[in-house]
Amino acid sequence: MDLIYSIFVDPFLQMAGAPDLLVQTLWEGFVGGILYALIALGFVLIFKASGVFNFAQGIMVVFAALTLVGLYEKGVPAFLALALTIGVMFLIAAAVERVVLRPLVNQPDIILFMATFGLTYLLIGLGEAIFGGNPKVMIAEQLYLPKGAVDIKMLGGVVTLQKIDIAAAVIALAMIACLSVFFQYTRIGRALRAVADSHKAALSVGISLNQIWVIVWFLAGVVALITGIMWGARSDVSFALQVVALKALPVLVLGGFTSIPGAVVGGLIIGIGEKIGEFYWGPLVGGATESWLAYCIALVFLMFRPQGLFGERIIERI
Prior knowledge:
The chain has helices at 2-8, 10-17, 19-50, 57-73, 78-101, 109-131, 163-185, 187-197, 199-204, 209-234, 241-245, 248-255, 260-281, 293-304; strands at 149-154, 157-162. The chain is mainly α. The protein has two domains: 31-240, no CATH class; 247-310, no CATH class. The relative contact order is 0.17.
């Protein structure tokens, strides 16, 4: 009886008794969810255009952030380092298309998936060789990202909003909105959607798959850079960030592998769900639920809607 009370009654009484703490938890979950959505967006972009699940997206986040910080440590001004890092991500996109995707075109999806595994460890080795393995401090102040906190009195208490979290949420939402508009209304965006629908049909109307793949991997690299800046500003820049990037997997399971709105909705469900679960139900299992709760939520979705909330239902006729 005590266990039932602890699971189904006490957490809700805590929410009602301290609504300011509930709002604080929801805000932190919202920020985390938006950043998870930004990571997932990199996976969605590549999967939509090439049908490849890019396991290397997580290390691309780390490599982009390390490149930015490493260039600044070499004496390059912050915004020039940012521009040069964007150039590096373009070079990586072009190299991946030429060395990985082009030779493996028309190969089974599992072959391309395993190729992204190889790319992951290549970038890990290259990053450690160039930048070392020690954590680095993100140059948030040099990029004029805000610091400090804002205290808001509400619901009989105080809710604290970190300014870097506000900036991260605004920048991530702006990035997602810009990419949505880009996909929907620009010529290249329409070409990307055509490639996503059918490679053969896109080729038949003169769309170059090679160019599209470079563009989409470059866009995924820019998303990785912004993600690395935001996550690095909230903690530090290290190879541990690629573990955070794996949270995109349950986000994709919830939202669907080809949906930008799905990435946002899935990210918010995971971000808010894991914060609420950690704060109110975590003590029942000794805490640290954030490391596994997202995957449990994804497992439940897989059992009832394996294509995700916004994914297309696949019907096979025999």
